[in-house]
Carboxypeptidase (Rapana venosa), 314 residues
Amino acid sequence: SMDYSVYRTIDEVNAVMKGWENSYPQLVKMKALEHKTHESRTVYYLEIGTALDSNGNSNKPVIFVESLTHAREWITTASLIYVIDTLLKNFHNTKFESALTDFTWVVIPVVNPDGYDFTWTQNRFWRKNLRFYSSQRHCLGVDVNRNYDIKFGTVGVSPNCTSDIHHGLSPFSEPETQNVRDLFLQFKARIVSFLSVHAFSQLLLHPWSYTTPNTSTEVPDNLQQLKIMGNKMIQALAYNGKLYRMGTAYDLVGYAASGGSIDWALAEKPGIYSYCFELRPQSFWQGGFMIPATEIIPTGQELLNSLMTMIQNL
Ligand code: 0X9
Ligand code: ZN
């Protein structure tokens, strides 16, 4: 059986995905996304659920999950591996069965494999992708979560390529955002929820992330539903006693950010349940991005519990 309490390299994560497809051919398809990264890597995604046809299609509602957009946020992919493996292994357990019989899960476990590999080999605290601009020192990378076409370049971003929140040259200039966009559009008619998995701070963010006190009259049409569902989800995230809080980015962390995935997804398909998880730990003092691997399982348990709560309330 699989050891959950270790962090895996990009090659190991891809091998885990392949292993699932081999072990559960009725439940899992692993596919390549179209846009290769700057270092020519292929980004893979999974389609998970029953009654997939030979192309991996079904008529079920889709829950779309994207993770490891930010290279240093290792706990996100590690927790997701726990979640997916637990769902697959316990498929016949009534507690989890509806997750795979009533829904199709479309999951990108590592949106940014170049950045992830860079955190293993060069710099553990790297955040962005590896967009190469010039041999100018320090000018490397775009913040993938600022590159979507929603209020692009307006708030919580930088035009400077040396910045950790550099938005890139134009909306969807990056292969990583192009991949998420194209996969979202492929499944758009069936998507009921879009989930972006990040770390850390123990938060559940709902749109809009771009609003500040000046623009806070702009709210999603489904704000009430987002809040009601989000409240249930943060209660479920407290599964192991950790406090999670829910709100917009500005409400919770005091900064707005444009060009992010959850805002783009909700604007593209109004009415969906679009959230950004900020997983463990709560703060820098509890390990920050370097959270010990011993916390992967409990973090995965609380993430799984909140996902089960969400689907039971859809
Ligand atoms: O700043 C970010 O991109 C996210 N926080 S992080 O510390 N993981 O970098 C929050 C973004 C919230 N908004 C969207 N996901 N759109
Ligand atoms: Zn992040």
In short: The longest strand covers residues 191-199. DSSP finds nine helices and eight strands in the chain.
